[in-house]
Amino acid sequence: MTAAITAILLAGSRPTPDPLAVAAGVTIKPLVPVAGEPMINHPARTLLSHHAVGQVIILTQSADPFAADPATAWLMADPRVRFEQSGAGIASSLLALLERGDVPFPILLTTADHVLLDSAMLDQFTGEAAGADIAVAMVERATLLARYPASRRTWLKFRDGWWSGANIFWFGSDRAKSVIALWQEVEQDRKKGWKIVSAFGPVALIGTLLRILTLRGGIARIGRRFGLVAWLVAMENAEACIDADKVEDVVLIERIVAARG
């Protein structure tokens, strides 16, 4: 794969103060120190060092906090990094960015709190997502609990297992905009899985409630409804679904980073 992927790194802030940022005494969550430096530095460096990534777009309300922090000022100087202003929601901000027409596909989207993102995860995800209009990275519960039995995640149950999001998404073509537009409509209910599923029609909703759909089949069915090729990428690495969302997450992440050396 050539260095043609556009990576979008979500680094915005919510309207209410983030507990981790408040505890760390920083203005926004991406600047919270994790393993000795602002958390955003970890996924940013991983993306920039990967052979398949051409540029990194940091989507945030303002670039000023990153420019003002000596530990993240390097992002402003890197020619492969550009900052774009986000709005009230992720989906609406992403749509506005794509409508401008200067963001080339394919696009890989991830988050600033994905501290444990590494090249192996990117290799697997980009390799399996290539050819899809949309792909979503997930981790099955057994994969996580086999390595980190005390880790707590939000799980969605399907016939093929219990799944948690890995905060890595693939938009392979302009056709993905239709699903992003729907994402915008249900964004406020992102923690309520059944409402998101119901937006894709009664068959998907009933199938999920009765546990008769596999997640793989459900994602493919959703794609077909929108005339898209949509795939699940079941991540092999348990760390793919561990993000820096809570204090206990940060403790675990720092332990993993230390073990990696």
Automatic annotation (TrEMBL):
The keyword Hydrolase does not apply. GO terms for molecular function: nucleotidyltransferase activity. It comes from the Bacteria. Keywords: Magnesium. InterPro entries: MobA-like_NTP_Trfase, Nucleotide-diphossugar_trans. Residues 28-140 form the MobA-like NTP transferase domain. This is MobA-like NTP transferase domain-containing protein.
